[in-house]
Amino acid sequence: MLVNKIAPHVYQHISYLNAGSFGLVPCNGLVIINKNEAIIFDTPTGIDASNELISWVENGLHCKIKAIIPTHFHADCLAGLDAFHKKNIPSYANDSTISLAKAFNKTVPMNGFSNSLELKVGNQMVIAEFHGEGHTKDNIVGYFPYDEVLFGGCLVKEKGAGKGNLEDANIVDWAHTVSKIKEKYKNLKVVVPGHGKSGGSELLDYTIDLFTFN
């Protein structure tokens, strides 16, 4: 597991998933910290890496983890959820993510929300929000207004990426969903995709173009 600081209060965590035909894939998540509290988007890709991240946040950053938020039901978002639950760290997810986790016999997040969730980290707001279908029918994004950071998860592609795993995708709505995100969050400084290098709003433009079919 690797961690990079990408904004004053935000770290990108990176772990690796053996994704069959896609090979060993680096998977991103986010750690947002403020006033000795932390909120995490997406677990690392397994229990060991998740325990490593939890230990680093608690012992390295000296922050209490208030929430873990998987952004959709695939393994690159919630495979390490049991590690968080064993530490009594509450998990939050889109209601659809909870339904899909149950259907596929995965660890189920504790708390559901329908469209958006606002949680405080320290004295600042963290937002998890559903804007529409794309990579999956349940995919949400994470937004931290204080540093203008967006975690797009697998809904957003790094520059130069292909379409990736489309097994559960809605390729008809994908571009429209990302367009809504671009319209809502106009002043982004950092955009983090589910896989690969972070960038700015150009990642939203790239993703929109990738899934626009004439």
Topology:
Blueprint: E1 2-7, E2 10-18, E3 24-34, E4 37-41, H1 47-60, E5 64-69, H2 75-78, H3 81-86, E6 92-94, H4 95-103, E7 111-113, E8 116-121, E9 124-130, E10 140-144, E11 149-153, H5 174-184, E12 190-193, H6 202-210
Parallel strand pairs: 4-5, 6-7, 11-12
Antiparallel strand pairs: 1-2, 2-3, 3-4, 8-9, 9-10, 10-11
Helix pairs in contact: 5-6
Features:
25% helix; 33% strand; antibiotic resistance; Metallo-B-lactamas; Metallo-beta-lactamase, Chain A; 214 residues; alpha/beta
Description:
The chain is α/β, with parallel strands linked by helices and 214 residues long. The chain has a single domain, classed as Ribonuclease Z/Hydroxyacylglutathione hydrolase-like (Metallo-beta-lactamase, Chain A, 4-Layer Sandwich), CATH 3.60.15.10. 25% of the residues lie in helices and 33% in strands. It has 6 helices and 12 strands. Strands 1-2-3-4-5 form a 5-stranded mixed sheet. Helix 5 packs antiparallel against helix 6. The chain is globular, with a radius of gyration of 16 Å. The chain starts with a strand and ends with a helix. The mean pLDDT is 97. It is found in: Periplasm. One of its GO terms (biological process) is response to antibiotic. Belongs to the metallo-beta-lactamase superfamily. Class-B beta-lactamase family.
